[in-house]
Amino acid sequence: MLVQIRGKLRRGVGLVLLFVLTVGLGIGNPVWANGKTEIFWDSWGVPHIFAANETKLMEAFGWAQARGHGDLLLTLYGEARGKGAEYWGIDYLDNDQYVHTMNIPRRSEVWLNAQTPAMRRDLESFAQGINNYFQQHPDFSQPSLRQVLPITAQDVVAHVQRLLLFEFVTNPQAVASLAGQIPEANVPIASNAWAIAPKQTESGHGLLLINPHLPWGGQFRLTEAQLVAPGMDLTGAAFVGTPVPAMGFNNDLGWSLTVNYPHNVGKYALTLAEGGYEWDGEVKSFDRRNNQVKILQGNGSYQTLQWEALESVTGIVVAQRGGNAYTLKIPGLDRSGAISQFLHMGKAKTLEQFEAAWQKQQIPMFNVLYSDRQGNIFYLYNTLTPIREGSWQDWDRLQPINRSADLNSDYYIYEQLPKLTNPASGWLQNSNDPPWTSTFPPELDAADYPPSLAAPDLSFAPSLLRTQRSIKLLKNNSSLTFEQFKQKVFDSQMELGDRIVPLLVSAAKVLANPIGIEAAEVLQAWDKQANPDSRGAVLFMLWALTIGADKVLGGQWNPADPLNTPSGMADINKFMAVLEGVAAQVKFLYDDLAISWGEVVQMQVGNFTAPANGAPSNLGSFRVLALSTIANQRFQAVAGDSYLSLVEFADRPRGQSILVYGNASQPDSPHNGDQLELYSKNQLRPVWRSPREIKAHLEKEEIL
Q1: For residue range 347-378, what is the model confidence (pLDDT) as tens digits?
Q2: What is the three-class DSSP state of 641?
Q3: What residue spans define the domains of the chain?
C-alpha cells in the first residue's frame, strides 16, 4: 500500500481534489474517480476518512487506529486471544484464564463464521489496515508488542466479544465475587445522555448529548473519527480496536448509550453429584473443555498452565465449593451481530431505520437516547433478558436450581421493552437510572412491564443524586440555546452539597468546636461546585467520603417527592465530629481549609496536566470524574467524562465535542492528553465535518 503524506501546505492536484470534495459533499457523499482513500487528520488528531466504498473505509479506519493507538491495539488483541501471559509474562495470567474460561477465543471463531460476506469483508479489511500500518512502520512499536501481528478478523471479533459481554454485561470482578473471592476494585462505568426536542430549543432544532463515563485506559479507551463513504457520513467515538463508532451522529440522526443494569446474567447454584450435577431428578454430566496458557518467564523460557473448564445447562462454572457448582448464564453468547448492528445504526436515516437495527437484538444491554433532524427524540431501555418469574431484585441474587422448568432461555422481544418517543416534556434523559425517569413527569410506568426487566423505581438508581441533578437541569426549560445547553452539560454542582451543607452549617453553630465552626464557614461560602477554583469542595468531598457518601442523607427516597429525597442528616453528632476531624486533617495537609479543588484534584494524561473540573458521581455532580489518590495527598482522575459531544440537528448537523484524554494513546503522540486543558476550562472544540472546515484545520493528509 502506497501512502503519500502532505502537510498543512497543499498544492497542485491536492488543492483541486479538495475543491472537488468540498463541492461534492454539498450534494452527497463523494466518490473518488481515482478510487483512492484519503485520511485528513485535523489539528486535534481526529481522522476524517473519505473512501469510495465501505471496505476501503474500514481498511483506512484500521490504519488510523494503528497510527493513534498502536501499542494499545496490539495489547488489547493479545489479551483477547488469551495470550497475554505468553507474550508479556505473569501479570497477564488472570486475564488469560478469564478469557479462556469464558471461551472467548473459540466462540469468536464461531461468531466470525456467522457474519454476512459483506461484514466479514469489512472486518478483514479493518484488520488488514492495522497490519498495513505496522508493515510500513516497522519501528513504530516495541518487539514485544509486534509479536501479536498479524491481526485477523477473528481478533477483532474476539475483542468486541470480550468488551461487550465480558466487561459490560459481566466482568472479572462479578465473577470473582460469585466465586467467593475478594474482587479487585472496579473503576466505575456510567454515563449521562440527553435528547431535547425542537420545541424546547431557541433554534427549533433537536439537541443531543453524548456523555459516557468510562475508565481512561485499556479496553474502555475511545477514539474519535469521521467515516465517509457512499451511504454513510458518521462522526463519533469507537472503542479502540473496534471498527464502528458505538456512539455518534450522521447527517440525519444521532444516538448515545448509557449503562443500564438489567440483571440479565443468571447466577445459579447447582448441586454437585457423583459424575456431574443434579438436574431434572437425574445426574447430568458437565461439558468439559481443556485449556492451557503459556507463561513467559524472566529468563525467556515458558511454563504451561493447564486447567479444565466446565459448562452446564445453566452456563459456565466459575467455582465449586460446599457441594455446589456456581455458574453464570450470560445472555447473547449466540448473538454474533453486534458490530453489524452498530454499522446499521450509523447508516440509518430515519427513526424507523434506527429502530430496525435495535429490533435485531444483537446488543444485550444499554439505554439508548436518540435525536434526529426530523425533530424526533427517542428512548429505549435495551436488554436481552430471559423471560422469567420474580422481580428485578430477585435476579441480582444467586438462584439455587435443579430443574429445566426453572430455566428459560427465551428473551423478551423488542416490542416488550420500555421505550418512549417524543414525550410531552420535550426532553429525555438517562443517567443510569431505571426507564421510568427517562422524562419528568414520568410517562413510562413500571406496572406496565414485566417486573424482572428493570428496577422498579428511582431509589434503586446507582447514582440517585446525579439522576436528580440531571432532571432538575432539564425541567422547566424552553427556548434553550446551544450555549445554555453546553453550560448545563458542564454543571458540576454537587446535589449532596446543596442538600446537606445548610444542615451542617446550622448544626455547627450549636454543636461544633472552633475548628468545626471554621469548617462550616468555608462550606457556607463554597459555591457547591467542583470547578478548579471552587473553595470548600475538597473539604466537603473528604468529609462525605469519610462517612460514605451513600450514608450521609437520612430517611428514604420518597416517590411523593422524587427529586429531593432522601434528605436530612443521618447522624448529626457523628457527622459534626467527622467534620472537625477532616477539617483538622485538611489544614495539616494543605495549610488551607479552603484550598481550591484544582490544587488538590488533577488530571494527567501523557505529558499534559490540568486542574480537574468535576466530581465523583456519588456526590451528585452531573459532571463526573472518578478519582484515585496519588503522591502528596493529591487526587487524580482515572475515569469519568470521556467523550462529550453536543449535537444540534440543523439542516446539516453541527456539533462541539471533546475527547477528554485526547485522540491518541501512543506515548509520543502530541494528541495524547492535548484536550485536558479544554475540559478544565469548560471548553469544547468544533466538530469539523466538511472538507472546507477540515482543510482550514489540517494537520496531515494521507492517501491510501
Answers
A1: 999 999 999 999 999 999 999 999 999 999 99
A2: strand
A3: 4-179+691-703, 190-263+334-382+417-489, 266-329, 495-621
| Numbered residues of the known binding site for Ca(2+) | 265
Architecture of domain 495-621 in CATH? Orthogonal Bundle (1.10)
Domain 266-329 top-level CATH class? mainly beta
Active-site positions read: 191
Between strands 601-605 and 634-641, the pairing is: parallel
Alpha helix ranges (H) inside 394-512: 464-474, 482-489, 495-511
Q: Which residues are annotated as a binding site?
A: 265
What is the 8-class DSSP label of residue 166?
A: I
Predicted TM-score of the model (pTM): 0.95
- Classified as helix, coil or strand, 354 is helix
Nearest to 703 by CA among 12, 9, 17: 17
Of 3.60.20.10, 1.10.10.10, 3.20.20.70, 3.40.50.2300, which CATH number belongs to 190-263+334-382+417-489?
A: 3.60.20.10
For 350-358, which contacts have Cβ atoms below 8 Å and span 24 or more sequence positions?
350/252, 350/253, 350/374, 351/253, 351/376, 351/378, 351/421, 354/253, 354/255, 354/378, 355/380, 358/382, 358/414
> Nearest to residue 212, comparing CAs of 80, 365, 70, 366?
366
Q: What is the mean pLDDT of residues 47-57?
A: 97
Residue spans of alpha helices (H) in 183-312? none
CATH of the domain spanning 4-179+691-703: 1.10.439.10
